[in-house]
Design goal:
The complex is a heterotrimer of chains A (411), B (300) and C (322).
Chain A: H1 3-23, E1 31-32, E2 35-42, H2 49-68, E3 72-74, E4 77-87, H3 92-105, E5 111-112, H4 117-130, E6 134-136, E7 152-154, H5 164-173, E8 181-187, H6 190-205, E9 209-216, H7 224-233, E10 237-241, H8 243-256, E11 263-267, H9 269-272, H10 274-278, E12 286-289, E13 298-299, E14 303-304, H11 305-316, H12 322-341, H13 346-354, E15 357-360, E16 363-366, E17 379-384, E18 387-392
Parallel strand pairs in A: 2-4, 2-5, 5-6, 6-7, 8-9, 8-10, 10-11, 11-12
Antiparallel strand pairs in A: 1-2, 3-4, 12-17, 13-14, 15-16, 17-18
Chain B: H1 2-10, H2 12-43, H3 50-66, H4 74-97, H5 102-124, E1 137-140, E2 145-148, H6 149-171, H7 173-183, H8 185-190, H9 195-220, H10 228-242, H11 247-268, H12 273-293
Antiparallel strand pairs in B: 1-2
Chain C: H1 3-23, H2 28-50, H3 59-76, H4 80-106, H5 111-131, H6 153-176, H7 179-189, H8 191-196, H9 201-227, H10 232-236, H11 239-253, H12 259-278, H13 283-297, H14 301-309
Helix pairs in contact in C: 1-6, 2-6, 2-7, 2-9, 2-11, 2-12, 3-4, 3-9, 4-9, 6-9, 7-9, 11-12, 11-14, 12-13, 12-14
Classes of the chains: A alpha/beta (411), B mainly alpha (300), C mainly alpha (322).
Amino acid sequence: MNLGNVLRKLCVVLMTAALTAAMTIGASANVEGDTVYLGAAISLTGKYSTNGAHTRKGYDLAVEQINAAGGVTVDGRAYKLGIIYYDDESTPARGAQLAERLIQQDGVKFILGPYSSGLTRAMAPITEKYGIPMVEANGASISLFREGYKYLFAVLSTTEQYLQGAVALAAETAGEGQTLRLGLAMENDPFSQDVRTGVIADAERLGMRVVIDDKLPPELNDMSATLAKVRALRPDLLVVSGHAKGAALAIRQIADSHIDVPMLALTHCDAAQVIEKFAEKAEFALCASQWAPGLAYSDELFGSARDFADLFEATFDYAPPYQSAESAAAVMVFADAFERAGSFDPAVVRDALAETDMMTFYGGINFDDAGRNIAKPMVLFQVQDGEYRVVYPSDASEAELRHPTPRWSER
Amino acid sequence: MFENLQLLFDYPSLGVDLVANGLMIGAIFALAAFGMALVWGVLGIINIAQGEFVMLGGFVALTAAGLGVPPLLTVPLAAIALFILGWGLYRLVIFRVVDRDLFVSLLATFGLSIILQQLSNEIFGADVRTLETGLGTLVLFDGQIVLAEIKLVSFVTALTVGLVLWVFLKRARLGQAIRATAQNARAARILGIDTDRVYAATYALNAALCGAAGSLVVMAWTIHPYIGLPYTVRSFLVVIVAGLGNIVAVITAGLGLGALENLAGFILGAEYQIAFVFVLMVILLVGRNLWLRRKREYLK
Amino acid sequence: MTKAQKYSLIGGGLFLSLVAPFLLPQLATQLTMLWLMVVFALTWDTLGGQMGYNSFGNILFFGIGAYACAVLQRDLGLDYFIGLAVGLAFAGVLSSLVAIILGFGMLGLRGHYFAIGTLGLGIAAGEIAGGWDYVGAGSGMVPPLYPTALAGRELFFYFLMFALALATFFILRALYATKFGLALNAIRDDEDKAEAMGLQTTQVKSFAWAVSALFLGIGGGLAGNLLGFIDPRDVAFAGATFGVWMVLMAILGGKGTVWGPVIGAVVFHITQELFWTYLLGWQRVALGLLIVAIVVFFPNGILGTLREQRPEWFGEKVEERA
């Protein structure tokens, strides 16, 4: 028999087996024995796979810690937590399918959010439809909270707050009667476009003028066209949002092309590892962040923010980006809600979630009516001497803003 | 769009800057297109995995640099590594689709591109990566034109590689064998040329070209596992504009595409830059075909 | 196989299809997507298998349909079901119109030029949709929610999609049995001869593409409402996923036949779901390998291979050599 024939017969056998197997996939209960299962769609492949990995580690570390501390006690019994993972391939369509699968086929009653606003947006209508609470930690888009979802809760600060600090600081540096010029280079995806909406709203409020407003396609590897505009129009503040890729691209190309910008604000600097990769080129950049190990938050499970960072680094061999911290917090929120609800009924847990008012190593968590966390502010770092220093909000700041950024010719 | 055009009029040096930067990336396009033309002309297949070879070249360069190899030496290293990969892929997959119809080769190389993309994602991660060379920035005309030195180095290197390949094809025995096979495979076989080896060598050479291009891309720009398809489409674009045989046309078209794309990104808005490349390809294809229809012919 | 065998097989299949969402409610969405895949494969085959024009960009019409339906639903603000019906009709008509208009230029291209040209179109559409604010740009669109007061959303979409698949199958089959089908095959076999014989090839080609686009557009509108979220690059104009899969499914099943795409779609969809469940993280690599394997070893697809091995099933008598 030649190879072709063998392969053909093999394929036929496989196909028949597959058909039979597919028919026998059954639904499993969400509470099995003494373990309660949470469902999670994570980007294990695709463009968000790195952040998906960060998110997963956050979830896993929290589950590990909670189980080690005795799990959750509901109705007098102790339950461990478990997570069922699927790969959403970084595509919203898959995420939506996954939500259906987790709820319908695997019978989970509680969902942990995916990475990215786009994916959360795709899954939210489904969890809402089935009345399944979703606590998400990585979908910051404010538009998620305007749809009137009752079963969606987010522990992270929403997009319009991301660069509020930068705009506010910029406004403070303005001279008398000076109208500040603002340049925007935002990736064309739900998250960055929402950040853009927030920045524009703030800018209008503070009387700034938007001179550049570019939407960067997600596949773009070269923002030199936008930077050419920056060179020509000289904005006082340039804001770039494009996940880690946007941050890396911006820092690299601004340095390479010697673009002089008095103030540069980015998102996802730490995920892009701009200090490690670009050293002095990253100096003076402002970075929005959901969390920092140096902040003064703490809780009983992990200890302080610094303790969490140390534990994470000991377990996974690298310092935790904020995505991991907020993911861990999401699991903690569920654990807390289970205990207060005293039940695993989704509707009851949902009501308990709405009443959440806790402090974690990640920050305070208190949900408003739409499900947003209003107890934790965004922080703004500036890269100073190769380190991130908090410069905003003022009550948490460890350093003064260094402004304006010196010209490249003088560095 | 009109404000952007206005900007170009107000600051003409902007246009020069855009074109200059566009030419730099255009050299890369020309290199990848040269490889695609080679494979198309000799093997008669369109290699959809072309962009993935570029991407892999970049990752090989990154890995090598991580092991301590000086950045500029990663170029020949990437070329060699990809040459071996290309040879291997030919022996495993490509030789089965060479004699079949073109569509089969399209699908097969598409499948290959998916495999390579996903493997790279697994092995190297989805992050955007770049390689610092420590080279500085060239400031010309009192700040009117700013070019990163690495871009200039990449430009020169790309053109040199292209030139070397051209000389190879003209003078070396294997090069002549390749050209002979492209002209008439049967006659070449009759004359004693091992066409199977020629095919393998051509495919491997193409991969090496892309590998070199990729290592330049990672140094002067950035890469990640999914940058492949636009490079493939650009190569295809350049080849259909320039034709299969003419190296000078390929280089000119490649450079031109780079400059044009950059300008279009500026004028139309960055969100339409990639759309521009694809739409341009469609327009050129259809236009070329309609032109031929007047003579009752069509694009073959 | 005998007529009796054939009809009982088909009857059984039909019965299963009607009953499946009740038997396996947790798989309802997967099954709905299965029918969508059948529509994909069938419509691709009209051009690719029957006519010889391999299109990598049919996803264009799916995306147009998804957006058209959602835009209409959003802007007209009618009752959900009426809005959906109008939206779907609009989606189908608009897609067909686009096919006819684009066909003027694109259908003049031959072979691989057509393939890559349509690939470019499909991806460009995604990029353009990503930049156009009217349809939500990069943030995508959210069609109105199914009124949750009425239960049975899954069943509703399942039967609608099943009806679409049935309609596509029967209408296409009927078309292939007419002179139009002969014309399609003539173009595939030798277009220049067909033209020389007086066949109006341009009209035939346009009509074929328009018919495909009609079904794809309606499918797009349905899918958009089913998934609840239309992303320009990942849902609507998902060239690298759906766009390529439709080609594969038709080839896997056996292009140029009526049942081939259907079988190919079923097998492919199930295989793909299994890869995704059991090969977590490596499912795309497996998919790529599958593509290469199909193309290299199964160029005639399942039906084609069956035909070689068991010609008597297809009514062909093979004489024994004396």
